[in-house]
Amino acid sequence: MKIIVLTTVIPDLIEELEISPDGKSLDKTYLRYIPNELDDHALEEALLLKERHGGEVVVLALNIREETDEMLFAALAKGADKAVKINGDFEGIDNHAKAKILRKVLENFEFDLILTGVQTVEDIDGYVGPLLASYLAIPYVGVVSGVSYLKDTLLVKKELPGGLLTEMEVSIPCVLGIQAAENPPRYVAISRLRQMMRTAKLEEFQCEKEKNGKIEIKKVFKPEIAGKAEMIVGEPEEIVEKIVKILEEKGIIK
Amino acid sequence: MKGDIFVLVEHLKGEISDITFELLSCGKAIKEQTGGTLFAILLGHNLKSLIPDLGCADKVIYVDDENLSEFSPEAYKMVLVHLLREKDFLFFLVGNTSYGMDIASALAAELEVSCVVNCKDFRFEEDNFIFITQTHGGKILNEVSVPNKAVISILPGSFSAEEGKREGSPSIEEIKSPVSLSTLKVRFKRIIEPEITDVDISKQNILVSVGRGIQSKDNIPLVEELAQLLGGVVGSTRPVIDQGWLPLSRLIGRSGKAVKPKLYLALGISGALEHQEGMKGSELIIAVNTDPTAPIFDIAHYGVEKDLFEIVPLIVQRLKERKGS
What we know:
- The complex is a heterodimer of chains A (254) and B (325).
- Chain A has 254 residues and is an alpha/beta fold.
- Helices cover 29% and strands 28% of the residues of chain A.
- In chain A, α2 packs across α5 (190-199) and α3 (95-106) packs across α4 (128-136).
- Chain B is of the alpha/beta class.
- Chain B folds into two domains: 4-176, Rossmann fold (3-Layer(aba) Sandwich), CATH 3.40.50.620; 201-324, TPP-binding domain (Rossmann fold, 3-Layer(aba) Sandwich).
- Helices cover 28% and strands 29% of the residues of chain B.
- Chain B is built from nine helices and 17 strands.
- In chain B, the strands form three sheets. Chain B has a nine-stranded mixed beta sheet, sandwiched between helices. In chain B, strands 14-13-15-16-17 form a five-stranded parallel beta sheet.
- The N and C termini of chain B lie far apart (70 Å).
- Classes of the chains: A alpha/beta (254), B alpha/beta (325).
């Protein structure tokens, strides 16, 4: 089975987020980028499928930040067969434009299955998976946490509210938006990653920018901290004393 | 600005999901600004009995087809594209749920209209709709100007379900599927119920819940001990489950259980909206997190800006002393 995995880097939310002076985007100079965790799950699911059924895993990423290289090398170190970096002027592109660029790039690849994380923390104008599937005129199922391969079809588990799952049979080729792989994403040792960065090569594509969707971001801002929580301050011992008192008052401990 | 507003009815196991009423409530609020008709679109099979619950809508379009008995992103998309292509609609509202996340972007792409996901609220100013969307795990909000004709996906919990619940007798247009659904590429097989070999976290009075801040599986026994001392159990957020540190049965939030315990102790949980959806109705929420900007502090009653490992061992010790005395 030929599997394409779409990955991207996203801002690390542990870092403080700053708004740029025009108030319409995040100030990128202070942002650190990390691989989208859900894409990591998509890669893991792809590698599991390859281990079970053979085939090939190709990882694609738009080169939106310098951290993209390391993410792609890490994918190779984990067992992907090929990593492809798509270069171009991608400043300010939205998911509509991303999906159109990916559609063009995919003309150069044969595939049975495209896996990607079901969402990123930056999505506003829709999700890349279903947009791309529509542009390619192939089926899409998202919020997926299990994929098994039968002959020419996939058995896909999709999460519903309340811990329910719905199982669907999906014809290939298709796009799946992964919520969680069957196993936690595999770990790659730094030494192995460094070695990969020295020895392996990324395949590169050059792509034209595509048009964004029709919505317009007017303003980006941080939510007012509702400040609903009453903060308990002091040394840890004092804090714990106060917590215990609250629990007593509420009758939770006697 | 004029135009009709359409709402997708979400149902599971023969019952209308709460998000539907939240969408109707949002649709009603939009209608107050613009006029037009509020439509509810119900796709299913033998579900006519659900229609009276949709009294908040002016009109219900009910498409009955056995291939619509259960949700299929493909079948839903095909029918909706047919229904909406000729219509001069203002907005099509879906939930930012497992269903809506499959539908919204795909429908927008097919109809060549705009799409905005993760919407929390809207504003109408100078004849223009501005939707407020949430990104970056709830740490950033965006004001988005949206042209007429757009698919909008609404975060659960953003509008009042009560407002959208009204018994009534909306006018009904019952039709067969306008498009053949006999050769689908996505075919429903079955619903899998969660295994009930574990405790039911939705029935607990005390929940000690852990997020990414727990750092490692090795630290789970520490919070297990705390939960036991408090007479509760351990629940968790998505990343903890995905790492395999706790079973899926302990998941609280959008894909997991909704809980309303007497005490919800949130340890190392940032409070992404997916998680909040499942626990914000808790009677008492105490959150411990090192990040003062974590959204969990917006909904917690009490907050502690500390590392959970500084606090939890001390609570455990304190509770043991009390038991001993």
